[in-house]
Amino acid sequence: MRRLILLLSMIALPAFAAELGDDGLHKTDWMRDTFKDLTEDLAEANDEGKRFVIMVEQRGCVYCTKMHEEVFPREDIASYIRENFFVVQLNLHGDTEVTDFDGDVLSEKQAARKWGILFTPSILFLPEEVGDDATAQSAAVALMPGAFGAGTTLDMFTWVNEKRYALDSEEDFQRYHARRIQERADGSTD
Questions:
Q1: How many domains does the chain have?
Q2: pLDDT of residue 3
Q3: Which of 48, 63, 105, 160 has the most CB atoms at less than 10 Å from its CB?
């Protein structure tokens, strides 16, 4: 019986494997292929009524793989991101040019270094308006460093989308997330 289960799991595995691009990074249908001019990307996100997100990943990252195989494929999460966010992927070690909000033109790896990104995946959530003297890192309203479970990931995207990071908000992310966990346990949320 164990052999049968192992065989079936090996056969089913390729159907769930995340698609890898030529750069070795996982690709989803909700990621945007842009010229990586962050000011233009932010404007396009705003025109679509979406929040701008920069997702930094790297080839061979086991945590990126975990997110792309276990978290992002969940329909509730994928559809929420697709409907509400404009996601641009950067390669932690990439050479593609990125134009930061402050006008600096850097390679992806230089931009990640400038922003202090050390871990992958790292997700930078941007506000609707960013000054031309700001960097992506300094303007970010939230940073999600590393791999998290489905509930934490969905809660972070929801918390940002609902602008709960605002200074006048009484519920920081940790309190919001704790409340959402309790609501899910009580069955009082979807």
A1: 1
A2: 47
A3: 160
The bridge status of strand 122-125 relative to strand 105-107 is unpaired
Residue 141, classified by CB atoms within 10 Å of its CB into exposed (0-12), middle (13-18) or buried (19+), is: middle
Q: Which residues of the chain have pLDDT under 50?
A: 2-17
DSSP letters for 32-85: E----BHHHHHHHHHHTT-EEEEEEE-TT-HHHHHIIIIITTSHHHHHHHHHHE
* CATH code where residue 133 lies: 3.40.30.10
CA–CA distances in Å: residue 162 to residues 74, 95, 156: 21, 34, 10
Query: What domain range is 128 assigned to?
Result: 19-148
Q: Please tell me whether residue 13 adopts helix, strand or coil conformation.
A: helix
pLDDT value, residue 77: 97
> Chain-centre distance of CA 143, in angstroms?
9
Q: Distance between CA 103 and CA 14 in Å, rounded?
A: 42
Q: Do 45 and 31 meet the contact criterion of CB atoms below 8 Å apart?
A: no
* Residue 91 near residue 58 (C-beta atoms within 8 A): yes
**Is residue 173 a part of any domain in this protein?**
no
Is residue 5 in some structural domain? no
The pLDDT value given to residue 15: 33
79 with 28: CB under 8 angstroms? no
